[in-house]
Amino acid sequence: MKDYKRKIPWGVIIITAGFLVFLLLLYILTGHGRTDIEDTARRLADGYIKEYPVSPPEGLTMENALAVQMEFIHKIGRVYGQAVGYKVGLTNPVVQARFGVDEPVMGFLLERMLRPSPATVPYGFGTRLMLEGDLIVEIKDESVNTAGTPREVLKGISRVIPFVELPDLVYKEGTKVDAPLVVAINVGARLGILGEPIEVEPTDEWLERLSSFRVVLYDEDHTQLAEGSGSDVMGHPLNVIIWLSSHLKRQGRKLKRGDMVSVGSITPPVEVKRGRVRAVYRGLAEKGDVEVKITFD
Questions:
Q1: Which CATH number does the domain 10-213+230-272 belong to among 3.90.226.10, 3.40.30.10, 2.30.30.240, 3.90.850.10?
Q2: Tens digits of per-residue pLDDT, 165-191?
Q3: 166 Rama class: left (phi>0) / alpha (psi -120 to 50) / beta
Q4: Other C-beta atoms within 10 Å of 6: how many?
Q5: Are 51 and 127 in contact (CB under 8 A)?
Q6: What is the DSSP letter of 13?
Q7: Which residue from 139, 136, 144, 143 is spatially nearest to 158, judged by alpha carbons?
């Protein structure tokens, strides 16, 4: 009886070889991409930590920017500590249009980025530091993750905290910054000054108060530098929490008790100069105006 050998069709051999080549190329490209992400994050983090402006990475996609951000945070975390919450940026539709996006972006607040008021900050701190009035919302429980309206969010928060953020652009002067570049540097989070926490209640009064309160920035000569209202942030600052919880859900995460969320710029950004700056929060606390004070020395 003859011993017939099974022949493999040439078509199968060609297809298999092509698939193996594809897998090899995918491995090479993926490894190379990973190296690029790590190198980019390392370069950005080095400039951030040592406080010198860096050249922006070219052709950065949003997908890669998110990967760079995580590496960036890991590297600067050795200096700035663990994440204690989130920073939401690009919350204004006009700003979103300028950056070519149709939704906000998210970064992380690290523990040593936050200081109590009154605070003294060395003039020239960071690379390209700015100043803006902001607000922190502190999460009370995980019900905020299913909230669909500001009223529902209000039931799941414990306090709000007047907050003057000092974001840092990091990149060299003249850089045309787009959304992926912002995301890569953790949405510019560098430093923030905290006022006294204010307890909130799930009432109509508080819902209106968070929408209508105003923040006014003054220099040491009492000259007004900038002004904004709670409603300037996505129509209501608690809409930021709704967006953030949805964004985190897509990443398999959720807001937890004690998380602090910076809702974004209430006032336009102001250039940092030597001297004292006051941020006056009007209509936020029942007792009257509250202030956050910073000296740049």
A1: 3.90.850.10
A2: 999 999 999 999 999 999 999 999 999
A3: beta
A4: 4
A5: yes
A6: H
A7: 139
